[in-house]
Write a structure and sequence with these properties.
By secondary structure, this protein is mostly helical. The chain contains six helices and no strands. Helix 1 packs across helix 3 and helix 2 packs across helix 3.
Length: about 180
């Protein structure tokens, strides 16, 4: 109990949709903070190509970590049907000023700049990567994988994002497709 009437929140928001939009934005901002922390954990001393790939993978692993550690917030982040305009909304940005979707986009752009992903493969790549990690998160939270122990999901996360980057046709920076882990 918080000691206020059920309608007290509407003194601060125009309507139910505005209230829900704010809650969703806050949940997405928290996801962005977790993803940013995962990206920041990538060693700065790596060469440009391996660092770009590692930061891309960190986006997916961070996304899955947020889903497993904060399932209520994760579900809330996607509770209200919205279009992709919210994906870049400043209201949903984390402390670093970017939303989860923007963090993914910048990681993909960095891979193009590093030469580990071709510019031709770049358009729409964030939709493919996001779909894969979000699908894994939902299967682990609400689907047939929900009985897996958290450690099993932690072990699957890097494998999933490796499959995603291989599926995107990433290279080692010299134009050769990657065939090993990073």
């Amino acid at each position: 109990r918080v000691g206020v009437s059920a309608n007290a929140a509407y003194r601060h928001f125009a309507d139910r949709d505005a209230l829900l939009g704010e809650v969703v934005s806050r949940a997405q901002a928290r996801a962005a903070d977790v993803i940013s922390a995962a990206m920041d954990a990538v060693p700065a001393g790596l060469e440009q190509g391996p660092r770009a790939r590692a930061r891309f993978r960190a986006v997916g692993v961070g996304y899955l970590r947020f889903a497993m550690d904060e399932p209520g917030l994760f579900r809330t982040a996607f509770a209200v049907p919205v279009d992709l305009s919210r994906a870049a909304s400043a209201d949903a940005a984390g402390a670093g000023g970017l939303t989860p979707f923007q963090l993914l986009s910048t990681a993909l752009d960095a891979m193009v700049e590093a030469g580990v992903m071709s510019g031709e493969q770049r358009p729409g790549a964030e939709l493919l990567a996001w779909s894969a990690v979000h699908g894994m998160a939902m299967l682990a939270l609400e689907g047939p994988l929900r009985d897996l122990p958290p450690e099993a999901v932690d072990e699957l996360a890097p494998r999933l994002v490796r499959m995603v980057d291989l599926g995107l046709g990433l290279s080692d920076g010299g134009g050769e497709p990657v065939d090993g882990g990073a």
